[in-house]
Amino acid sequence: MARTLIITGASSGIGAATAKAAAEAGWNVALCARSADKLEALAAEIGDRALAIACDVTHREQIADAIKRTVSAFGSLDAVFANAGTGVAKPGVEQGDPQEWHDMIHVNVLAVLYAAHAAIPHLRKSKGQFVITGSKAGRDHLKGSVYGATKWFVQGFAGNLAEEMREWGGRCTVITPGMVDTPFFDEPKPGKIQPEDVANAVVYALQQPATAAVREIHIMPND
Ligand SMILES: NC(=O)c1ccc[n+]([C@@H]2O[C@H](COP(=O)([O-])OP(=O)(O)OC[C@H]3O[C@@H](n4cnc5c(N)ncnc54)[C@H](OP(=O)(O)O)[C@@H]3O)[C@@H](O)[C@H]2O)c1
User: Fold this and answer.
1) pLDDT in tens, 4-38
2) Does this model's pTM top 0.85?
3) Domain range spanning residue 65?
4) Is 90 exceeded by the pLDDT of residue 1?
5) Which of 6, 102, 105, 184 to mutate to test the pocket of ligand 1 (most atoms within 8 A of CB)?
6) CATH of the domain at 14
7) Which residue's CA is the nearest one to ligand 1's atom 10?
8) Count of domains in the chain?
């Protein structure tokens, strides 16, 4: 039976590319984001293996419901790609906007926890995997970056979750790209990492035998 992956932030960039790559590799994919129209278009492109579920990951009940619907539709949950994330328009601390920090921390930090909390009972049954999008910004110190600090949370949490999940044969991976050419930026970044490159890394982590826990994949641009 095909395994099932739920992806947050699937309407765009890394999440959309991963949906296509995972479906190509034989996974069923549940696609979550707020933009229902983009999810429907992507699901139509992928075909029967895909299910679009409009969902705001900062609403605990919405991500829990999306996970339930995924299990009902496909019969199990084998992996989560907690990838939805956002930045801020106003960089730095002194010039930063506390409301923007609040909203970003909700998506980049708390919503990852909500997804993990709702998914783990299902992943325990499938000895499944939890993959999170961290960042180079979560491994280095960047001047005044509150965004980077949310990704330091992700880096730390992924390792801690890996230690919790290994008790029952589960695995957790953090993917830590440098700059990726996605709508995260206003301008195209053609020489940087392509979303398909990150998608390949996610699928690699997901396809390893149970004896290999891929804890981190760090990808940098090569320009
Ligand atoms: N691009 C880079 O250079 C880079 C580098 C390292 C890490 N990352 C990380 O990679 C991840 C994906 O970003 P991307 O580069 O692919 O950017 P993107 O194209 O802007 O995608 C962001 C995704 O997150 C979704 N999202 C945002 N807020 C949400 C919410 N409240 N509920 C549900 N979904 C939400 C967006 O969908 P909707 O707007 O439809 O909800 C969209 O699908 C993020 O975690 C980002 O921090 C990016």
Assistant:
1) 999 999 999 999 999 999 999 999 999 999 999 99
2) yes
3) 4-219
4) no
5) 184
6) 3.40.50.720
7) 133
8) 1
